[in-house]
Amino acid sequence: MIILQLVFFFVDFNLIVNNTTEKQQWLSFQTEVDSLKLTHGDERLNFHPFNPNFISDYKGYKLGMSVEEIDRLLAFRKQNKYVNSAKEFQTVTKVSDSLLAKIAPYFKFPDWVNNRKDISHFKDFSNSVFANKEKIVQVDINQATQQDLIKINGIGEAISLRILTQKEKLGGFVSMEQLNEVWGLSPEVVLSLNKYFTIIKLPTIHKIDINNATLKELSQFFYFKQGLARQIVKYRSMYGDFKNIEDLIKVSGFPVNKANIINLYLSF
User: Fold this and answer.
1) H helices of the chain, where?
2) Strand-strand pairing, 208-209 and 197-198
3) Core-most of 3, 14, 72, 141, by most CB within 10 Å?
4) Using one digit for the tens of pLDDT, what is the confidence trace for 25-34?
5) CA dist list (Å): 258 to 138, 140, 151
6) What value, to the nearest 5°, has the Cα angle with vertex 18 and ends 13 and 21?
7) In which element (H, E) is residue 209 found?
8) 208 DSSP β-pair partners
9) Would you call 41 exposed, middle or buried from its count of C-beta atoms within 10 A (0-12, 13-18, 19+)?
10) Burial class (CB in 10 A: 0-12, 13-18, 19+), 27
């Protein structure tokens, strides 16, 4: 009895209780932290398909890229160049194989890149008028007349008029890729057009002031339908002016695969 009384007198049972309580609280807090880490880890992998040419600093960080890798991509893009495959993306950024394997499934390249065909099997549609010339002198597509276009096999009066009409709507072609958007032109005929025509000089375009254009003005632009024009105006009113094309592609429904072409028709 005396020993028990001495133990009760000298031992501080409150300290043991407090330590146990603090330990339990700490363990509970640690469990919550671990849960948040797991949740954060899952968020980093929750991506929608995107064009890797338009990765921002923040997007690159979310993907797990280093600052040096992001800077290499941005420097490459400043030269007005584009990566067209996962392999080319790795060559430019020098990301590791493991990181590439993780993020490459989310890459979405333009349709014209994904559907490129080997031109070696295409039939030559060149006209004898051109074939008789030993040296082909390419004509600026923006200076071509209907008579020039009809000389290409596969192009008649109707299609030649569509090409010229589309050129007028756009204010001029800025890329030969835009010929793929002309209804009725087959890939074979487009190849022939690329053989005899090119863009020697960019046309003088009345650019759209994306930060001040009205809904009607945006809706009349060839690449913006009314629904997208409304989204642009809504986004602009909520977040302020667009600084560059990278800001604009954040708008819901924006045709990211045509961003490099659309950019030439806009002013920021």
Assistant:
1) 2-10, 13-44, 57-63, 67-78, 86-93, 97-103, 111-114, 128-131, 146-150, 157-170, 187-196, 215-219, 226-239, 245-248, 259-262
2) unpaired
3) 141
4) 655 655 554 5
5) 25, 22, 29
6) 130
7) strand 208-209
8) 266
9) exposed
10) exposed
- The token pair at 240 is 């302020």
CB 54 within 8 A of CB 246: yes
Give the bridge partners for 175, in sequence order: none
The model carries a pTM of 0.49
| H-run or E-run covering 267 | strand 266-267
- Cα–Cα distance for residue pair 117/191, rounded to 1 Å: 11
User: Is 199 in contact with 142 (CB distance < 8 Å)?
Assistant: yes
CB 109 within 8 A of CB 177: no
Cα torsion through 9, 15, 16, 20, rounded to 10: 160
Cα distances from 116 to residues 11, 62, 238, in angstroms, run 82, 31, 39
Q: Do domains 119-198 and 208-267 have the same CATH topology?
A: yes
Domain ranges of the chain: 52-109, 119-198, 208-267
Domain 208-267 CATH assignment equals 2.60.40.790: no
User: For 202-260, what is each residue's pLDDT tens digit?
Assistant: 999 899 999 999 999 999 999 998 999 999 999 999 999 999 999 999 999 999 999 99
The interaxial angle of helices 86-93 and 67-78, nearest 10 deg, is 110
Q: Under 8 Å CB-to-CB from 184, ≥6 apart: which residues? A: 158, 159, 162
CATH (residue range 119-198): 1.10.150.320
Which tokens is 200 given?
Answer: 């020697």
